[in-house]
Specification:
Number of strands of chain A: 10
Chains: A alpha/beta (about 325), B alpha/beta (about 525), C alpha+beta (about 475)
Helix content of chain C: 25-40%
Low-confidence stretches of chain C: none
Mean pLDDT of chain A: 86
Strand order of the largest sheet of chain C: 6-8-7-3-9
Shape of chain C: globular
Largest interface: B-C, 68 and 58 residues
Number of strands of chain C: 18
Helix content of chain A: 40-55%
Oligomer: heterotrimer
Distance between the termini of chain A: 55 Å
Largest sheet of chain C: 5 strands, mixed
Distance between the termini of chain C: 33 Å
Strand content of chain C: 15-25%
Order of helices and strands of chain A: EEEEEEEEEEHHHHHHHHHHH
Number of helices of chain A: 11
Structural class of chain C: alpha+beta
Mean pLDDT of chain C: 94
Chain lengths: ~325, ~525, ~475
Amino acid sequence: MQIRAASIGEAVPAESFDAVIHSAFESAVNMRLMSEDRLITLLISDRYKLPQGIHVTQKDTPLQALEPGRLAACRGGILRFDTFPLSIDLRGAPVWKCGVAGLMMEMDLPSAQQAWSTAWDVLNRRQRRTNCDIIADDVFRLQAGSVLGQRISRPVLQLVASADAFDAGHSIQAAETMIGLGPGVTPSGDDILIGFLAGLWSLSGEHPKRHSFIRSFGEGVLQIAQRTNEISRTYLVHAARGQFSSALSALVENIGTGGDVEQAAQDAMRVGHSSGMDTVTGLLAGLAVWNAPTHPYPIHLHEGKPNSGKSYGHIATSD
Amino acid sequence: MATLQRVIKNLYRDSVSLMQFSEKLRALDGIQQASAVMATENNISLLVEAGLLQGAVPPSPNDLLIVVEGREDSAVVTALDQVEAMLKQKSAEPAEGGVRRVPPSSIQMALESNPAANFVLISTPGEYAAAEARKALQLGLHVMMFSDNVSIEEEIPLKRYACDHDLLVMGPDCGTAIINGIPLGFANVVRRGDIGVVAASGTGLQQVTSLIDRLGGGITQAIGTGGHDLKSEVGGITMLQGIAALTADPATKVILLVSKPPSPDVMKNVLDTAARSGKPVVVEFIGADPAGITSGNITGVKTLEEAARASVLLSQGKPLKRFSKSLPARYKSLVAPAKKKLKKGQQYIRGLFSGGTFCYETVLLLSEALGKVYSNTPIRKEEKIPNVWKSLEHTVIDLGDDLFTQGRPHPMIDFRLRNERIVQEARDPETAVILLDIVLGYGSNMDPAGELLPAIQEARNVAAKAKRSLVFVGSVCGTESDPQSLSRQESLLAEAGVLLTDSNAQAARLAAAIVS
Amino acid sequence: MVNTLFEQDFQVINIGLASFAESIRQTGGQSIQLDWRPPAAGDRDIGMRLAMRVNDPEVEAANRTAFERFLSAQPVLTGVEKAHNAIPGLGERTLLHAGPPIEWERMCGPMQGAIVGAIVYEGWAENQDHARDLAASGEIAFSPCHHFGAVGPMSGVISPSMPVWIVRNQDRGNLSFSNLNEGLGKVLRFGANDASVLSRLKWMESVLGPAMDAALKQLGGVELRPIIAQALHMGDECHNRNAAASSLLFKRLTPALLRTDLPQNDLARVLEFIAGNDHFFLNISMACCKSMLDAGHGVEKSTLVTAMARNGVEFGIRMSGTGDEWFSAPAPMVEGLFFPGYSAADAAPDLGDSAITETAGIGGFAMGAAPAIVQFVGGTPQDAIAYTREMYHITMGINGGYTLPPLNFDGAPAGIDARKVVDTGIAPVINTGIAHKEAGIGQVGAGITRAPLTCFEQAIYKF
């Protein structure tokens, strides 16, 4: 049977590609592109979109039957699978683009800060309620209870501080200790990095210095992305390019515009088990960079300060 | 207390199910701790720090690492076995594959087992070809229609649909093409290079690509359009698409177009598009005046051989020279000895062709040199041969004409008809030169020289009885890599005394020189 | 852009001269040779209409809708009532029969026998001769079961007083019906119509029917797809083999029957009757399939086949997008194994509405799950799997609810696409009983047949 794609992400090759089924879940199938070291994802979802996603809304699409190793190929805009009675028509499907990189967020606006605080509260409440390993508040106060939380706290703080100082070297160093860390298919460390990059991209605006920092940091993240699994690596690849999921984009946007942050935060956190919450943790950390003096949250940056970095108050206005 | 770990290769389960598995593990008898994580470097060191892993294991980020701590080894091993079985349950290879592999009987069915197929080659009887082409296009596949007898009314909507969907329809009646180095239909095995060809004529395409190969050049793509494409009703859709594709193709340096002269509106469109390509374009509109075509990046040429030569020179970055109309020296030396063999009264050329374009080009060149030439494909109406079965003065016959192929394979495959005709011409006291084309490549007869030699011998015997001798002139269209091997075919024919030239045009000129 | 072709591996589907496929392989390309014949036996008009519909976005969208409705159906067996009460619009003197419409004169022997029996059973005529005259007189209306949401095996004759199963699709609310299975031997559906047949029918009307209704009311209805799904795991294909499904139903019904106030004698006879009939579930299976397919019927432009049925003379199909029209061809003969003492010469052409099971993706389509069936219809268990695999090529998808253990729990092929049937030339396989051509002798064998391709070709032509 043929299903029409409801939309496709901007990073899905236009009309033809070859791929191998990499992994299949109940509502998503990952396919490894033969021409590039990344995955694209066939996703059953009404609203959630991915830059590498082919989105279908047909609920009963039998995706789990697509065993890893089967071939997939797209010709003339029609995606087909080896010996499987399903084809996806990509022709004419609207292309979804993530707008995070063009947002030009201004975090010193009171409305944005208010929105940030709301998101922060929602996040921490949910993390505590679901008994997560990583609870943002504890991480930033270096008071994490779980082994994973303890382990990830310092690198996260170092990440924020060195990004604030435009110190790509130390940022990458911090990322190195986070990458691949944590349970699940997208380890928590990776999710935080992805969210963090989303925060940075949304703040990049027309600041050349921020741009060049994000580029070198992104480049560094790509270098070390080999240390995590392919699924997570794909998200990192897109994050480095400024491409994020629709849920994360919507949250950033709502923080920027003072929209329904609570709902957007809930939507973004609902992804995976802890994945969504970890990503939002990273995002809110990323949004705290480059505008610290007016920032509502007292992030203890000095705790994670890189040795060579300047003091916090100093650099905040240097941009 | 016992702790054991296990790595499961390339296993991806969503975090929720991994958590559930970990919980199930912990709930098992005798198990204290369990963890299932992707085996990344950071996760491994985390587990080491937590005391769950004794020593570091080599990281393999795409694999799942399960660590279980329990009271004793046996409980831990059981738990690990259990979890592995649970995790692998769904990903086991199907015992007999998903769908039975019966031979596919429709395009859609073929796609079910070969989703990466991108091209459909159709050689069904013409009446069914358009429907199959339509299906292929609607399924997003490019098409070559080898089939003929497809009406222009069927061709136009197919090509329009294809054009709107960025797909190619080569044909109908497209005898040959070379895509990505693969010969399709009747085609020669030609070296890959940087010349891209679009041709409306099958044998024309074979001649230019074979000559390019012979001259040391190579091709990127050779796109056939089919014979009706440049009619004004069709508007040259495929040729225009072909030019655009070759223009955009970074591997193509030179573009070569081959066709009979199109209708004026189509010609203008084709030349405008060619002019815009920004690449050197060689145009052979067989029979049209090259001077009217040459301008800017476009070079008009007169023969298929010139087309090949010009393309190769351009691809090598060498300056174009003027092509001489007269016979090259190496062939000139053959003229006098051949003339000497002929008796008075032996004054006419009899051309027996298997390739339509070879025949047409020969008629053009001979008329230019000798005046009146009768043919079943004449350039002037009054030179239409009254009886195709009997030659009249200079006669050049296309044996691939529908008239001859009813209920019989094409003369490139089946030599009987041509062989009979060779002997028939030998009986005619006016026959001086028998002019032939020999086409190699996939699809053609596997040993054309072997087929021709007995007929040539018999013809010579017939002539000898009447105290005459005959001159055979021909050219072999093919390459060394063709299954028949160019050099082998040429040496067999040369041994039989056939005067061979490299190209069809030179063969015509040599024949003309012998009778004039 | 055409150029993408230049960047891809070149994989050719070759239709026609096989030597072309060979030379592509020899020169380093990949080619797939089609085992091609002109579709629709070379009818160019149908061929072109088919081609225009291949991957046509409108048809694909319609088929998705129809297929989804079909697959999301939740048929529940809700009760048993007399046909004239249960079936909306059933006229006073109307007899329903299997297959596409047919007049009395053209009916096959078994169907005429069943009609005669039903007329006497209803008391419209005193004896068989009068019944025959009445049938020929035009006073009785004959109509396909399918026109009333009903299905019946073999002659499929349903008269107003007969009890019928009522199946309701909880998803869309549509109702479907089937008569109650009489068992094997001398039975009305094979055209037998003597006193023993009629008295059994009377007992079914007065005792069995009400008992079943009472039990079903006790149970609050029985969901049918789970029973079929389970039976497929127990060696049934729910057309020609219903041993497991009948047992599963028996298991559900018995405790409920014991809670009804049925007299002990009746109760015992009812239980014996069900226990003694391995095909008891067949009619329910058919009504379940009808329920699902009716849900997918009537979607404009859809090529989902929603009925395949035979009246012993003609084989007819209906398609979702062509409304109530039938596309018919002469009913084929069934190839199979004959009971001792019978041969192909005794057989009637293919008969009955039971091909509704294949239409819905079980029966012959799920034969791979029922290896024991081959003892009955011929062939080997491997053949049975091969038939199922072949059917994937003409269906729209798979029914994830009906998984087939020998096929590694792949879902059964589901939703026949008339386009694919015509394009591939693969005719739907049907697994069926063989009736004696004369009335009243009964079943003489069982075997396999194929739906005639011309039905599907006409449907595509009409489209």
